C-alpha cells in the first residue's frame, strides 16, 4: 500500500492512542491537524507536501522537540469535500489540535468561520482565501506564503525586469475555468492598464485534460508571453499545447503549481526553459533538507518515498511546518503553553525567518498574515529548477488593494 | 477558414480519442446489456498498470503495454466472476449501481496503492505539430485517433467471429443463449476482458498526453456522451459519436468561449447527451429495442 496512505491510517490510530494516554503526555504534545485531500482533486501535491510536513516534525521530535514538547499530527482524508472537512476539523479539535491545514480551497473556505470562532490557527499556504492575509479580519487564518495575486504581480514584474519590458506587449492568461483560475484577472487587468501591456484571457474547462481548442485561440492572439494558471493534470497539458502552438518554453510562465512531475509528463528535455513562480526553494541543498536526510530519512524514520525528498511540493510542506514550529517555539517562550491564541501570537513573533534559506524571509504581524508575499522565478533547466531571481515581491499596493477589497466584502 | 479547419480537424481527432475510451463501454453493453459506469476507472487503471510495469520492471513501454493488456484482460474476467455473476437475475439498475461502486473503488484504490501524484508515460510522440498552411495538427491526438480506428476495426471483425456471434446472441437474450448451449457467463467474462484490454489503449494514449492520475477516470463523461449519441450497442456509433462530440466540443467553444469568457465545452457535451436522450433515445446507430434505465 502507498506509504502515505498507510501513514494516514497509522497516524490517525496513533493520535487516538495518544489522546487516550495521561494528561501529562497530552501536555507534552502539540497536535497539528493535517486534514488534507489525499484522494480527490489535490492528489497531485498532497503526497509530497504531507510527507515534507511529517518529516520536518519528525526531525524536530528526533531532536527532543521544543522545551521538551514534541509534535503529533492528527491526519484525516477530506477528499476535498467540505462536509468531510468539517467532520475532520471537529475531531481534530477534540484531539486537541491547535493548528489545522486542509490544503484545499473549498474545505478551508468552509472552515474559516469555525476556525475564527474557535480560535484555532488555520494555515492556508498557496490555497484558500487570499484576503485572509488581512490579519485584522482573519485573526486566526495564515496564508503564510504569496497569494495568487502576489504571484501574478511577481510574474508580471519578472517579464518587465528580465524579459524585455511590458510596454506594447501582449500577455495571455490561460487558466482553468474555476475561481482559482479567475482569481488573478482583476490584478492583471490593473497592471495591464498601469504598465501598458495588452492582456488576453483564455479559459479552458476543468479538469484541463483537453485544451486544444483553447490554444488554437491563444496562438492567434500572438502573445509575447503566456501565464498558465492551473494545477494538477491540466498543467502539463497547458505546457504541451503551448509548445505545440509555437510558444517558446521561456515565454511560458506558471503559477506555483508546476513541478517535477509535470516536467516528467511533458518530457524533461522538452520542458526546458519553462518558468514558474516559486514560493519555496526546490532541491536538497538546504540545511533543513540535509538535516532531514541525515536524521530522519537515513535512520529509516521517513514518512514516504525517499525519492520525494527535495521535490518542490515536499519542500513547501517542510517550509509550512518550519514556520508553524517557529510560531510554537515563540508561543512556548512567551506563554509556556501552546493554544490557538498563543500560537497566533507566536506567528507575530516571527520576523525575517527563512528556514535557513529554504524560503523567502517571512514576517507576520496582526495586519499581515501573508508574511510579506515574496517568491522568486525559477526555470526548468532540463533536470531541476534553477532560480533566476532573488526572493522579491512586486506591486504590493495592487496586491493589498485586492486583499483589502475582498476582506471588506467578507466583513460585510 | 483556417481557424475553423484547425478546430474541426483537432476536434475530430480528440473525438476519436474519446472513442477509444468509449469502445469498452460498447463492447460490454453489446455483449451483456450492462451499461458499465466503471469504464473511466478501467481506463485509469490500464494507464496505471502500464506505468507500473514499465517502471517497476524496467521494461520497454510497448512491452509494458502488452503486460498491462494481459493484466486488464484478467481483471475483466475476474470482475465478471466475482461481481457480475452474483448479479444474475437482479434488476439492471442494481448492476449499474454495482459498476458505479466499482468506479469509485478503483478511483480510490489505484492511486492509493500506486501513488496519487501524476505519473508519466512516454510513447515517444514528438510534441511538434504537423503544420499544413496555418493549421496545426496535434500529433499525439493523430496517433490516438489511428489507434482508435484500428481497435474499432478489430472489434467489428471480432463480432463476426464465432465467439463474437455468441456474444451478440447473449446480448439479445440470456435465456435463449443458455438454451442453445452458449455459456452466458463466459461470454460476459470475455466482453469485460476485452473492455479491460481496450481500456489500456485509451489509458496509454490519454495518459501520454495528460499524465497518469485519477483524472483519467473523468473520461467517463465524454465517453458516455459518445455512446449515447452513437448508440449504446453500436461499434460504428462509437466512431460517428466520437467524431460529432469531438468536433462540436471543439468548434463551438472555439467561437463561443472568446465571447462569453469561459470554457463551454462541457456545456456542449451535456447538451449532446440531453438532446440525444430527448429526441433519439437509442442514438444514431443503436437498436430501438434497447432497454433503458
How would you sum up this structure, described in words?
Chain A is α/β, with parallel strands linked by helices. Chain A folds into two domains: 3-146 and 282-348, Response regulator (Rossmann fold, 3-Layer(aba) Sandwich); 148-278 and 376-395, Response regulator (Rossmann fold), CATH 3.40.50. Chain A is 45% helix and 15% strand. A seven-stranded mixed sheet of chain A has the order 7-6-8-9-10-11-12, with helices on both faces. A five-stranded parallel sheet of chain A has the order 2-1-3-4-5, sandwiched between helices. In chain A, α10 (234-244) crosses α11 and α13 (312-335) crosses α14. Chain B starts with a helix and ends in a 14-residue tail after the last helix. The longest helix of chain B has 31 residues, at 2-32. In chain B, β1 and β2 form a beta hairpin. In chain B, 72% of the residues lie in helices and 2% in strands.
Feature tags:
heterodimer, A: 412 residues, alpha/beta, Rossmann fold, 2 domains, 7-stranded mixed sheet, 5-stranded parallel sheet, 15 helices, disordered N terminus, B: 293 residues, mainly alpha, two-stranded antiparallel sheet, 11 helices, 72% helix, globular
The helix/strand class of chain A is: alpha/beta
Radius of gyration of chain B: 19 Å
- Mean pLDDT score of chain B: 90
Low-confidence stretches of chain B: none
Across the major sheet of chain B, the strand order is 1-2
How many alpha or pi helices of chain A?
Answer: 15
What's the count of strands of chain A? 12
What pair of chains forms the biggest interface? A-B, 46 and 50 residues
Subunit organisation of the chains: heterodimer
N- to C-terminal distance of chain B: 43 Å
The overall pLDDT of chain A, averaged over residues, is 92
Percent helix of chain B, as a range, is over 70%
Helicity of chain A, as a percent range: 40-55%
Count of structural domains of chain B: 1
Beta-strand residue percentage of chain B: under 5%
Our estimate of the beta-strand percent of chain A is 5-15%
Sequence stretches where pLDDT stays below 50 over 5 or more residues of chain A:
1-25
What is the top-level CATH class of the largest domain in chain A? Alpha Beta
Q: Tell me the strand order in the biggest sheet of chain A.
A: 7-6-8-9-10-11-12
